[in-house]
Amino acid sequence: MRSALIQWLVSKCVADKRIHLLTADLGYSVVEPFQAAFAEQFINVGVAEQNMTGIAAGMASESLLPYTYSIGIFPTFRCAEQIRNDIDYHKLPVVTCTVGSGVAYGSLGYSHHAIQDISLMRSLPNMVIATPSDPEQVIEILNWHYDNPCPMYLRLHKAGEVSLVRESGLLDLGVMQQIYPDPAEISDIYTHKTCIIAVGFTAAKAAALVHKYTPHIPIYTVPLWGRPALNKIIDKAKGFQTIITVEDHVLEGGFGSYVMEGLAAFQESRVVIPFTLDSNVVGKVAKEQILLEPLFRKLESTLQGLAQVSGS
Amino acid sequence: MTSASNEAAKKIRELSLRLVHKAKASHIGSALSIADLLAVMITAPDIFNLRSPDDPNRDRLLLSKGHACVALYSALCIKGFFNVDDLMTYGDDYSAFMNHASHHVPGVEISTGALGHALSIGCGKALAARSRGESWHTYVILSDGEMQEGSNWEALMFAAHHLLSNLTIIIDYNNLQSLTTVENTLSISPLEDKFKAFGWKVSSVAGHCHDELHQSLLEAKKCKYPYALIMKTIKGKGVSFMEERVEWHYKSPSDDELNKALLEIHGK
User: Fold this and answer.
1) For labelling alongside A231, which of A30, A143, B234, B258 has CA 20 to 30 A away?
2) Count of the separate structural domains present in chain B
3) If residue B173 lies in a helix (H) or strand (E), which one and from where to where?
4) Domain assignment of residue B95, given as a range
């Protein structure tokens, strides 16, 4: 996904020199193509996330298009006040790009685990949360933002994400895109009792389980959401009796919480089953697949149960 | 001292006092501390080009010490960007004129209030101007206590590294912060040496002398390096019973205190 980001920036910057890529000294073997092609539009601010974010706000306030880049926690929590006051409050079109969502940097330890970042970013009223599920969706998201400039948090995984067979159509704020089996079997068999909404790169793994056990349950990606999209997301979700959410984030403040809060706020009574990282993942150091194993094991178990219940 | 800047300084002080009195607001000491600076800037187009808040070629002024906003609002009112009636909504419920600098007020570039933000934003603006080959200048006014914020030192390094010659910062060095003096809280001395070590051109100036301010600001604008102007000031300047008194970081004047202060401001 991060390569998709850089490729998009390179291609877009050819014709639009408003685009600037700012990094807080991260992005080795990723950002170089942009740096090589557009040295004037590339700024390594050094290890200084607060300054990077303030600079980006200043540039955006003068009609430039800055993209800040770093590992999950650093350009979010470290500079939360700059994002809140300087970017979000002023509604400036800075894109805060992070890599290593969830526990992608599993063995690097808690300092590098982006498992509460959504909680922080989605509390900001103007911030669009972008959680692409495959590299193509990264491009679609960036194209959408280019046409709809606003504060945006682009939460990327790391590498190796597969391309999904997804619902086509123009991406927009709050639009969920259904994932189909590969090879595609688009049919009208889908139930309207239960749906699954998967955040970011978890969509691929979740979709494989869904298509194996409960192919009649539709599964969606949620590329563009956040407070500005709440009405639209809830409007879609309330069409189902049960909503299962999947994310590489803790429950507190994550997407599942977002859906539950939204339904409650709109006084819509639905069942929400959130599959998240357990809070006891904090402090655990292991490969990502090991840290994510409990999440997908529980999801698999639930789907197996649903497969045996007719009409779910 | 020109008669125009002198009159502007009096007016900024008068309006600032009336605003905090009316709204029962804090921070009058901080506002009076920068009244002379703002008076010089708004009456010297060679230093500060601000004919219209929408002019793309205007110089940008960022008030990092946003708690001193009544001085900035008053200066912009004198510039004619809004009238006194609008200004006097300051402190009213839902007024655009909130008690820290608000970008919803014509002429205020950014909202501030949390310290340690505007210098980084100023760096971004200076970069933007340079990237487009535009000649406007960015000024950032910071407080002395605010220099205890680490983010400012990130930005200072950045501006020097990138040789942002179109950026000037002015430090309101009145040596009083929230609870006591800067020296007793967390010393920032020797500030001039620190700026030099960080690669900035730096000078100190008597912050209530209009001629010195004008001269230094001119030098700053023409300098080929980012420029730090350390402005030695008196918190509460112009009102004897407010000068160098920490309580005027918080208190608002009573009716009697307002009248006494206005008499002093107008030399009566």
Assistant:
1) A143
2) 1
3) strand B167-173
4) 3-265
Q: How far apart are the first and last CA of chain A?
A: 34
pLDDT band at residue B268 under the 50/70/90 scheme: confident
Q: Which fold is adopted by the domain A165-307?
A: Rossmann fold (3.40.50)
Least Cα distance to A117 among A249, A297, A269 occurs for A249
Rounded Cα distance between A62 and A40, Å, is 17
From CA B55, how far away is CA B53, in angstroms rounded? 6
CATH assignment of the domain containing B140: 3.40.50.970
For residue A88, what is the DSSP state? I
Interface of A with B in 66-105 (CB under 8 A): 66, 81-82, 85-86, 89-90
Q: pLDDT, tens digit, for every residue of A140-183? A: 999 999 999 999 999 999 888 889 999 888 899 999 999 988 76
Interface predicted TM-score (ipTM) of this complex, two decimals = 0.96
Superfamily designation of domain A2-155? Thiamin diphosphate (ThDP)-binding fold, Pyr/PP domains (3.40.50.970)
A55, A67, A82, A91, best to mutate vs chain B, most B CBs in 10 Å: A55
Q: What is the pLDDT of residues A98-152, one digit of tens each?
A: 999 999 999 999 999 999 999 999 999 999 999 999 999 999 999 999 999 999 9
Domains A2-155 and A165-307 share a fold: yes
Q: Do A82 and B119 touch (CB under 8 A)?
A: no
Show me where the domains of chain A are located. Answer: 2-155, 165-307
Enter the pTM of the model.
Answer: 0.96
Q: Enumerate the residues of chain B whose CB falls inside 8 A of the CB of residue A61.
A: 109-110, 121, 124-125, 128
Residues in B closer than 8 angstroms to A39, CB to CB, are none
Token look-up 């389980």 returns A209
**What is the arrangement of strands in the sheet containing B201-206, beginning at the earlier edge strand?**
B60-63, B138-143, B167-173, B227-232, B201-206
